[in-house]
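> call design_seq(struct)
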């Protein structure tokens, strides 16, 4: 089971260069970064974890930060957990992701989600009740641009003409039921377990990225059933649990459940504090 790391990276924390170097040196499998473009001050949407962390308003762009991390490493995966796909122009974002994947040698994992902050999404023109459909369309546009041959897509919330576009992401296409192959980097959908989410995972992603491991014993069989019903191969499903505070028993439990990757939570702090946290997590990492 792979052990990676995440934190709320801001203009006040350890830099992406230093964190990536420390993670690679210590044998961690990857670096994952979250995304908020902004936090509107007049906000009615409650933060899912209780009090809103101040770091949410100071986050670096994950794609620019990961590009810095890519330039100083050779091995670790570079991922988002999660990217707010509905809040981006999909043609521009497809180019950014493909470029990062190309320059890093195919190391990108795209964790995507639907978001929790209605006000933030609405500032981007996202109709909140339809945000899941927006994400689905955005991903379909990007898949069309990542395809090995020019491919058009037209959906409810946008489309793209069949186009010549390079670079292409490095990951090989994967099969899916009745709708042709999936192109692009490994894509994991974040969100709470449920039939709707698992249908989307099986339709247009490579796996699931839940926050924490609560309820996995019940959720993973349901996900695997939805995956099989969609005609996807069992060995193609990837599960990465994020924001984990690890202990030996918890990691052993995840391993027994067939979790592929655990993303441990680091403090949103400076270099000394983050490196001290990595020292404490070293017992879980095998180079």
């Amino acid at each position: 089971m792979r052990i990676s790391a995440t934190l709320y990276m801001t203009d006040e924390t350890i830099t992406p260069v230093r964190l990536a170097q420390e993670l690679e040196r210590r044998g961690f499998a990857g670096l994952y970064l979250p995304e908020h473009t902004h936090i509107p001050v007049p906000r009615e949407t409650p933060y899912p974890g209780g009090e809103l962390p101040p770091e949410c308003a100071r986050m670096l762009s994950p794609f620019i930060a990961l590009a810095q991390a890519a330039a100083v490493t050779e091995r670790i995966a570079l991922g988002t957990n999660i990217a707010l796909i509905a809040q981006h122009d999909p043609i521009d974002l497809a180019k950014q992701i493909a470029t990062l994947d190309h320059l890093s040698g195919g190391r990108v994992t795209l964790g995507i989600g639907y978001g929790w902050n209605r006000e933030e999404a609405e500032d981007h023109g996202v109709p909140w009740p339809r945000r899941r459909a927006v994400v689905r369309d955005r991903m379909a546009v990007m898949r069309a641009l990542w395809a090995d041959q020019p491919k058009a897509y037209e959906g409810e919330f946008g489309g793209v003409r069949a186009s010549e576009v390079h670079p292409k992401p490095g990951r090989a296409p994967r099969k899916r039921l009745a709708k042709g192959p999936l192109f692009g980097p490994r894509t994991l959908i974040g969100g709470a377990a449920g039939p709707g989410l698992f249908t989307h995972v099986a339709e247009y992603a490579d796996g699931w990225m839940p926050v924490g491991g609560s309820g996995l014993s019940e959720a993973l069989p349901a996900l695997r059933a939805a995956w099989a019903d969609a005609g996807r191969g069992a060995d193609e499903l990837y599960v990465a649990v994020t924001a984990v505070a690890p202990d030996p028993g918890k990691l052993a439990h995840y391993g027994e459940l067939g979790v592929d990757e655990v993303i441990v939570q680091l403090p949103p702090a400076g270099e000394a504090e983050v490196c001290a946290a990595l020292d404490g997590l070293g017992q879980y990492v095998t180079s």
